[in-house]
Structures are given as structure tokens and as C-alpha cells.
Amino acid sequence: MKKFTVTQLLTAILIVMTGFSLFSCNNDGPDIPPVKLEDVNGNYKGRLITIQGSVKTEKIKDFKVKKDTITFAEFPIQEIVRTVIKDPAKADEAVKTIGKVKYNIKYTSSINTTSNVIELSLAPKTLEIRIPVDGVLKKTEVALASKQKGFYVGMDESLRFALVAEKITVDGTVLGSYEAINYNFPFCVKN
């Protein structure tokens, strides 16, 4: 019969313990629950980056997300009005006169289980505004589009999406020399 020495016994115990410790490393890290479609619902506050040509502005906007709609109680119209009215003072006065413009964006959602995100396919409709120009209300239609999907990331409960105002029509006439307005919401969080 073979006898084990103390050093051989300690070496065997050390090898077994090392194996158990390496095995336990495989399960380290937080458990991230899978996203559900209703996780996207809520009130959000986020950074809006608006780009038109070489002009870039940033502001904070609030909006709500429900089952299939993103709702802005006050959609940002400053760039649209400044495109229609070239005089900055008159454009700012028109924005004040118009006040808050409510706008809804319909969307459909699906879960991307590989990335653990909710993908939003946005379907914005035409935004209609009556812009006062020299005492006359100009019917302005803004064709908004979404060139890419939006995303709700479950890990940090954030929402990301973008819109572009591709075309503006004033009283039936399309503005000819128009630079598209990009509305980027790169990081919005629930309130």
C-alpha cells in the first residue's frame, strides 16, 4: 500500500480547492433580467441634439412613452419656424405666439434577445403648424421620418432614437433651399 506524505496530501487539497475556485468564477457578474415590451413605458427626460447644416443646439426635453406612442407635450419647433421666417426676431415672436405644440410618434416594438434591448420602429406622421407671418397664418407641414430604429436598453433603462425633418411645405409650396433638421435623442432616462 502506498502512503501519502503530508506534502502530497496538502498538494492534493490545494489542487482540488483551486479547481473549485476557478469553477465559481464562471458565474460571476450581475444577473441581468431580460427586457419585456412594457419596460419601455414611462416618463422620460433626455438630451436633444438638433442639427441643421452646421448649426447644432442642445437642450433637455421631456416626453412620455406608452404602449405604442411617444408623446411630446412640447415638440421643439424653433428650427422649423426659423426656416420659414428668416428674420430671427420675427421667428422668436412667432414661436412664442404658437406656444406648445403637442406631437405623437407611433411605433412598433420587438425584443432583440441577443442584445437584451427593445427595438422601436418609429412611424412619425406629418407635423402641422400654423405659423403667424406678418399677420397671416401660414399652414406649415413638416414631413418627419425615422431613418433608423430606436432602442430601449434594459440594463440602464435608457431610450435612444432619432428623427429628421426631411421636407417643409408652406401653404402648399415646398421650401426649395432647405437643409434637413435632425433631432437626435442619444440618451433619455426615466424620471
Helix content: 10-25%
Order of helices and strands: HEEEHHEEEEEEEE
Q: What structural class do you assign from the helix and strand content?
A: alpha+beta
Q: Which band does the percent of strand residues land in? A: over 45%
The low-pLDDT segments are none
How would a textbook summarize the main sheet?
A: 8 strands, antiparallel, barrel
Number of strands: 11
Q: Can you give the mean pLDDT?
A: 90
Strand order of the largest sheet: 1-2-3-4-5-8-9-11
Describe this structure in words.
By secondary structure, this protein is an alpha+beta fold. It has one domain (37-190). The chain has helices spanning 6-25, 78-84, 88-98, and strands at residues 42-52, 55-66, 69-72, 103-112, 117-124, 127-133, 136-145, 150-153, 158-170, 173-174, 181-190. The protein has an eight-stranded antiparallel β-barrel with strand order 1-2-3-4-5-8-9-11. Strand 4 and strand 5 (117-124) form a beta hairpin. Helix 2 packs across helix 3. The longest helix is centred in the N-terminal third of the chain and has 20 residues, at 6-25. The mean pLDDT is 90. Pfam families: DUF4840. Keywords: Signal.
How do the strands and helices of this protein lay out in sequence?
Blueprint: H1 6-25, E1 42-52, E2 55-66, E3 69-72, H2 78-84, H3 88-98, E4 103-112, E5 117-124, E6 127-133, E7 136-145, E8 150-153, E9 158-170, E10 173-174, E11 181-190
Antiparallel strand pairs: 1-2, 1-11, 2-3, 3-4, 4-5, 5-8, 6-7, 7-9, 8-9, 9-10, 9-11
Helix pairs in contact: 2-3
